[in-house]
Amino acid sequence: YVYIFWDNNKIEEYFKDDKYHQHLLASPYYNNIPKAFLTDYYRLKILLDFGGWYIDADCEYISSLDILTNYDNPTTSIIVGYMNGLINNGVIYSDDSIHAYNILKEWMEIVKIKPTQLPLFENKDHRYCYHHLTQFRGIVQNHKDYVLVLPNNYFYATSKNKAIILHHKCS
User: Fold this and answer.
1) CA pseudo-torsion sign 165, 46, 131, 140
2) Range with the lowest mean pLDDT among 9-18, 52-61, 124-133, 156-165?
3) Which of 148, 18, 136 is nearest to 94 (CA)?
4) What is residue 126's predicted lDDT score, i.e. its pLDDT?
5) How do residues 84-97 score in pLDDT, each as one tens digit?
6) What is the DSSP string of the chain?
7) How many CA atoms lie within 13 A of 136 on its CB side?
8) Within its chain, how far is the Cα of 93 from the centroid?
9) Calpha distance 84→162 (Å, rounded)
10) What pLDDT, on the 0 to 100 scale, is given for residue 83?
11) What Rg value do the Cα atoms of the chain yield, rounded?
12) Which of 75-79, 82-86, 110-114 has the lowest mean pLDDT?
């Protein structure tokens, strides 16, 4: 694997010409938008452009990711974890197939903060929270032959002996 750490500087440089990013920067509510919501778009766009694994910085590798990418289903294009009734986006895999491209494009449209939603952030009102993680379940259903949803013990386990990745903020 090639490891790329996407810090704030790298994000700003990569997305400087991105229309959606520019739209958010121009919003008077930009500073009130939790960075996690912005990251939702960035991680999907990066996966769309590069493929591979997106893994939150607060994750600890317990064992090799190869066990997942060599999964016995040749049609799997996207791998995500499931926790507390939601598709969790702290660990996502995407291959370079047209199926992955279409799924990521649909998901990106869901995570984009719409102009009508921006005023919700005026007083740091977070009713926008996590609606896209529940909406992504519909995309999973529509593309179930291409999306592998793994139970929480793969990425969000409470003990190291069950996990491939231990996601600290979720455990």
Assistant:
1) negative
2) 124-133
3) 148
4) 53
5) 777 777 889 999 99
6) -------HHHHHHHTTT-HHHHHHHHSTTGGGS-HHHHHHHHHHHHHHHH-EEEE-TTEEE-S-THHHHT-S-TT--EEEEEETTEEEEEEEEE-SSHHHHHHHHHHHHHHSPPTTTGGGGTTT--TTTTHHHHHHHHHHHHTTTTEEEE-TTTTS-SSGGG-SEEEGGG-
7) 28
8) 9
9) 17
10) 75
11) 16
12) 82-86
The residues, any chain, with a CB within 8 Å of residue 62's CB and separated by 6 or more, are: 160, 163, 164, 165, 166
Q: What is the pLDDT of residue 58?
A: 81
Residues 6+ apart with CB under 8 A from 96: 51
Contact between 77 and 101 (Cβ < 8 Å): no
> How far separated are the first and last CA of the chain, in Å rounded?
26
